[in-house]
Amino acid sequence: MTDAAVLAARSQAESSAPPLLEARHLSKRYHFGKRLLPGSGKIVHAVDDVSLAVFPGETLGLVGESGCGKSTLGRCLTRLYEISEGELLFEGREIGHVGARQLKPYRRKVQMIFQDPSGSLNPRRRVADILAQPLRVHGIRPRAEIDDRLRELMDLVGLPPGYLDRYPHEFSGGQRQRIGIARALAMEPQLIVADEPVSALDVSVQAQIVNLFADLRDQLALTYVFIAHDLAVVRQVSTRIAVMYLGSIVELGSTDTVYGRPAHPYTEALLSAIPEPHARQQCERIVLQGDLPSPISPPPGCRFHTRCPFADDRCRTERPLLRPLDDGRSVACHYPRTEVSRTAGT
Amino acid sequence: MALTILQRLFQMLFVMFGISVLAFLIFFATPGADPAARIAGRNASPETVAAVRANFGLDRPLPIQYGLMMKRLFVTRDLTSFVNRGQRVIPQVLDAAPITLCLVVGAAFFWLVGGVVLGLLAAALRDSFIDKASMAIALVGVSIPAFWLGEVLNLVSQSRFHDTWLFAWVPALGYKPFWSDPWMWFKTLLIPWISLATLYIGLYGRVLRANLVEAYQEDFIRTARAKGLSPGRVLIKHALRTSLIPFITLFGLDFGALVGGQALLTEVVFGLNGIGRLTYQSLQTLDLPVILATVIYASFFVVMANALVDVVYVLIDPRVRGS
Amino acid sequence: MIPPVANPDPTDPILRVGGLTVSFATDRDPVTAIRDVSFDVNPGEILSIVGESGSGKTVSLLSILGLTDPRTTTTSGSVIFKGKRILELPDREMRRIRGREIALISQDPMTALTPVYTIGMQIAEQIRAHQSISRRGARKRAVELLGEVGLPNPSEMVDRFPHQLSGGMRQRAVIAMALSCNPALLVADEPTTALDVTVQAQVLDLLRRLRKDFGSSIILITHDMGVVGEMADRVLVMYAGRVVESGTAEQIFDDPWHPYTWGLLASIPPLRGPRPERLASISGTPPTPANLPPGCAFAPRCRFRFEPCSNPPPRYKDDGHTALCFIPPEDRPRLRATVLGGERSAA
């Protein structure tokens, strides 16, 4: 069952424990276009044959530019979206294609946090009601303990308990995100999938929430999948990183390995493109040409070859698979940068 | 773009088929009522009822009944009225259709132009007297039934003040075909048009004003102003064009309602022998074949109007054109 | 009567903003969104205005362009562009400056273009608003401009509608439009915030090239300290409608004076080097213009506040570097070290 891709998905995980959540060859396709005329429908491969393992206690950062499929993948991992193909295992049990009833315990253990929490906070209900509802519905706590639990939740996310009587619109963006986090925590989850949880916030508030994520992980022994386009934020919170491009993972490894010496040309370009405050003496930037190709008709061979400065004929025809390198990470590239520079160096 | 329009026309045919089936079922498959007896009219002899039954194939299965009915409506066009002793129905409907068409299209023209002008003025002069007055017009307009307004206009222009210089030009009630006397045609229809359009001008002006005010919050309006364009150009070329989309949606809906409702009573009030008046008369005598024919023809008209609105969409908004 | 100002000189600042104050009418009392903002933009210079949402960055730029709603907004102070006081100009004359002399690049390329016209038409429209040129000539110029900003296949792109282009391509089209009349000053409001990093790199590259090739002055509004570090010659840090610190990019990054700037710089997670255990965040949230604290607006969130902070702070000035803060110059290095030190000791 454990083929090469599944093994590659485990690269550089610190724990030897079995994965908490594992995706095997997961794909998500959308059909759209004119279905009246047969054969003219179009298919978007939003997530294309992704294998990924999340180990207990780690924070897996999922990065990539808009349209790379990271949000769709996040939603597939929480089963908010139906999976077109592949397996999804939670604690070793297949949950990718089971019905709502068998999914219910899993729904509790895996929570999702979104970019803009206001959309999911009912404006006509007080914070106390919003937080208490999941406790009641899932019967997580006896009724008598709910009030105490609410206060505990507010304390966890750093809000005064007096705010329980307020309505969502009375809060600032950062405070609303704290409430969104509190609601996810109310279910006592093991895994939290956070989709761009800080990208709508101002820098100074963003740092507060990033710190909060770290504190909660330590206090509650949580596991995160942290999805964001801001590579600096992801570096700050993640233990491992998965870089996505056009629906596939192109590089996967520990944060320090990937950021320290990116192996995939795309990761390298992505990192070099980030402007830095003290960048006046920055090293040579790789400016990628062109735009992201359409996921409806992705290029053949390596999907990155249209923008890759190092692509050759092999890249244009043969699609590289995610494979482990000597330094422990996995990369989907025929000519990983680390190997190239090593041969060049010797 | 052509493909999008073609697709829309295909959908239109599909909807028309659905409507014809639905109308047919309501008339011929209502449980507990004998359609033959109703077609034959009140106090019909048993022989007439039997003749109707044979004539319409009412003793045969429903799909065949439907096929026969459609054939008589659209192919042979020999549907006859039993109440009116064998009068052909379809020619009646076809004679009446242009009158209704003139009435509603003319009224629509008035209310669209009036609505756009009022909306532009109200938006350009926000919070001014004109803005507030347009609000009052809208309120009054939507609360006055068109047939009542028609009666009042009739009263004023036909009897009370007919002899004054103001209304001396108003011709007697009735319809003059456009081809025989265009000026007369215009004069007979002007007051009906106004009474129908009043209902909508204010309302449409307000809707457009709201859309325009909203458009002024958009980034692209800021861009247009930052380009150094004149306020008039920003309003007409950038704000109006994008604000017309909801305006036209609303028009598609109201136009349908107009054909089905307000136009019927307006025709009666102004003595115009259109589809509305025909329906009105056949309802009074319970002349089922005529009602069926007018219902189906009128609903086709509404469907076509809506298809036309969608085609207009494609023309004004490039985003709905297929790539 | 507009009082004459000194003759323009090529080395004089192209734009001088002095004591700009903007307030909005609300249902209750008028609210002052920006207060006493002053700065100069020199020819060929990139001035960056940084600040968080609600700090008044965008409002100050809109009032410079005269794009605020006169029914609800009152503006005072002076804005002198090329020696002309432009706040007092009648609308007709201001329109001649807008788009021709000062051009705007908006934040979100998705919404900055009118959706129902081709980009070529929108560029040609701006050219024809300011120059007497034929339709065909304007279109030809639009194709040239699209090529200049690096859009592939410009003669085909000119007939595309905005929704048919990607975000990066749209932002290039917006920039092409802004450049169409060779403006002396480009005002870019968060021009790359809506873009992906690789596309952002392309657009920043383009802006830098424009400055080099055409000598345009650029006001770059952003919340991203990284973009500032990479682009700006001089920096204005805004907080709650005021300029809390200003200076050259070196001054701001190497020796910032204001505690808000310290926090802003320290709260960005680093991309290389050791990762701090915790980020040095600024506690609390920015105030809204309607409920500004008396005295220093940053005081409630400032960890160094002391008694004087309940009074309006003075502006320290030295060698073009200014800060709106009570902390005396000699105390700054020691206090700032505690911001950085807190970070280090935790790591």
UniProtKB/TrEMBL annotation, chain A:
| Any Gene Ontology biological process | transmembrane transport
InterPro entries for the chain: AAA+_ATPase, ABC_transp_ATP-bind, ABC_transporter-like_ATP-bd, ABC_transporter-like_CS, Oligopep_ABC_C, P-loop_NTPase
Answer yes or no on keyword Lipid metabolism. Answer: no
Indicate where this protein resides in the cell.
Answer: Cell inner membrane
Q: What one GO molecular function would you report for this record? A: ATP hydrolysis activity
Protein name in UniProt? Peptide/nickel transport system ATP-binding protein
Spell out the family assignment given in the record's similarity comment.
Belongs to the ABC transporter superfamily.
Query: What's a GO cellular component annotated to this UniProt protein?
Result: plasma membrane
User: Does the record carry Transport as a key word?
Assistant: yes
From TrEMBL, chain B:
InterPro entries recorded: BPD_transp_1_N (IPR045621), MetI-like (IPR000515), MetI-like_sf (IPR035906)
Concerning SUPFAM superfamilies, the annotation shows: MetI-like
UniProt keyword terms in alphabetical order: Cell membrane, Membrane, Transmembrane, Transmembrane helix, Transport
UniProt xrefs under PROSITE patterns: ABC_TM1
Membrane spanning residue stretches:
12-30, 96-121, 133-150, 183-203, 244-270, 290-316
Q: Identify the residues that the record assigns to the ABC transmembrane type-1 domain, covering every copy.
A: 97-313
Q: Where in the cell is it found?
A: Cell membrane
| GO BP terms in the entry | transmembrane transport
* Coiled-coil residue windows: none
Its GO CC terms are:
plasma membrane
Any one Pfam family here would be BPD_transp_1
| Protein origin, superkingdom | Bacteria
Q: Which PANTHER family match?
A: DIPEPTIDE TRANSPORT SYSTEM PERMEASE PROTEIN DPPB-RELATED
Give the family per the record: Belongs to the binding-protein-dependent transport system permease family.
* Record-given protein name: Peptide/nickel transport system permease protein
- Species name for this entry? Faunimonas pinastri
Q: What is the lineage of its organism?
A: Bacteria, Pseudomonadati, Pseudomonadota, Alphaproteobacteria, Hyphomicrobiales
UniProtKB/TrEMBL annotation, chain C:
Domain of life from the UniProt record = Bacteria
Q: Where is the ABC transporter domain?
A: 15-265
Q: Which BP terms in the Gene Ontology apply to this protein?
A: peptide transport; transmembrane transport
GO-annotated cellular components: plasma membrane
A molecular-function term among this protein's GO annotations? ATP hydrolysis activity
Tell me which UniProt keywords the record has, alphabetically. Answer: ATP-binding, Cell membrane, Membrane, Nucleotide-binding, Transport
Q: Where in the cell is it found?
A: Cell inner membrane
Family matches, as Pfam families = ABC_tran, oligo_HPY
In the bilayer, the protein is annotated as: Peripheral membrane protein
What is stated as this protein's family in its record?
A: Belongs to the ABC transporter superfamily.
Query: What NCBIfam families would the database entry show?
Result: oligo_HPY (TIGR01727)
Which PANTHER family does the entry mention?
DIPEPTIDE TRANSPORT ATP-BINDING PROTEIN DPPD, OLIGOPEPTIDE TRANSPORT ATP-BINDING PROTEIN APPD
Q: What is this protein called?
A: Peptide/nickel transport system ATP-binding protein
